[in-house]
From TrEMBL:
One of its GO terms (biological process) is spliceosomal complex assembly. InterPro entries: Matrin/U1-C_Znf_C2H2, Matrin/U1-like-C_Znf_C2H2, SF3A2, SF3A2_dom, Znf_C2H2_sf, Znf_C2H2_type. GO terms for molecular function: nucleic acid binding; zinc ion binding. This is Splicing factor 3A subunit 2. PROSITE patterns: ZF_MATRIN (PS50171). It comes from Cyprinus carpio carpio.
């Protein structure tokens, strides 16, 4: 036989395989692959009869060896029957109720109004740090309920136009209404000693105190104590000129001042009489006296005091 000039043949290759040989080789490769990935003993439709052959109980087909059965399981007929069997079992199976979800009972309370409160502004005397102390009274608070609080941005609320300069501190406890306080939108000091809360179960009072963080202090010039940020009240006496030095003061009149002997030296650091405002000048000698009224006015009486 001339194998050299056959179509598709090569010298020494043994010739081109026929279609039956190709199918047999393909089935063998599928069997080897299926044996590596599928455990045939766990297939519910695989059965070995008394003749030594194998049957598919789903498709009612006979197979001479395991490889033939495994090749059958990868075919179109077997896959179609598997889909039909799954649809039939799903239709005949009773509808199983869905697992019940855990229902959380919503507590409903009748609002009884707003609680009483007290706000105290404080400042640390040593470093000048500002703080706010809130005291909220909940005498009729529900059993097992504790007060809650949180800070809210100005953009979360819908009562006022949002203003980035302010934030809100909310307090809530059933059955009271939620109340809010408008505080400056400054950074809060969350240190352990600068932010604390306390719920007194006996007096039913809730306390909260927080401090604002300190702003950067101004650098004081050398030789001067740094400012703590505390504003000093203005002087109660205004309009007085600075005390002149004793060398620049005019000499006393020749006859001396009223009530002082001639030649007596003028008391140090005492401004001349003309520099004092009218309400601080010494009274002039007169026959009457001033009578003060409850409204703060004064009237001159003509009787002897």
């Amino acid at each position: 036989m001339d194998f050299q000039h056959r179509a598709g043949g090569k010298t020494g290759s043994g010739g081109v395989a026929s279609s039956s040989e190709s199918n047999r080789d393909r089935r063998e490769r599928l069997r080897q692959l299926a044996l590596e990935t599928i455990d045939i003993n766990k297939d519910p439709y695989f059965m070995k009869n008394h003749l030594g052959s194998y049957e598919c109980k789903l498709c009612l087909t006979l197979h001479n060896n395991e490889g033939s059965y495994l090749a059958h399981t990868q075919g179109k007929k077997h896959q179609t029957n598997l889909a039909r069997r799954a649809a039939k079992e799903a239709k005949e199976a009773p509808a199983q109720p869905a697992p019940e979800k855990v229902k959380v009972e919503v507590k409903k309370f009748v609002k009884i109004g707003r609680p009483g409160y007290k706000v105290t502004k404080q400042r640390d005397p040593e470093i000048g740090q500002q703080s706010l102390l809130f005291q909220i009274d909940y005498p009729e608070i529900a059993e097992g309920i504790g007060p809650r609080h949180r800070f809210m941005s100005a953009y979360e609320q819908r009562i006022e136009p949002p203003d980035r300069r302010w934030q809100y501190l909310l307090f809530a406890a059933e059955p009271y209404e939620t109340i809010a306080f408008k505080v400056p939108s400054r950074e809060i000091d969350k240190a352990e000693t600068r932010f604390w809360t306390h719920w007194n179960r006996e007096t039913k009072q809730f306390f909260l105190q927080f401090h604002f963080k300190m702003e950067k202090a101004l650098v004081a010039p050398p030789g001067q104590a740094p400012s703590l940020g505390v504003k000093r009240p203005p002087s109660l006496i205004t309009g007085l000129a600075p005390h002149p030095h004793s060398d620049s003061m005019p000499p006393p009149p020749p006859g001396g001042m009223h009530g002082m002997p001639p030649g007596a030296p003028m008391p140090p650091h005492m401004p001349p009489p003309g520099a004092l405002p009218p309400h601080l000048r010494p009274p002039l000698p007169m026959d009457g006296c001033l009578d003060s009224h409850s409204d703060g006015t004064h009237s001159l009486q003509s009787i002897h005091c």
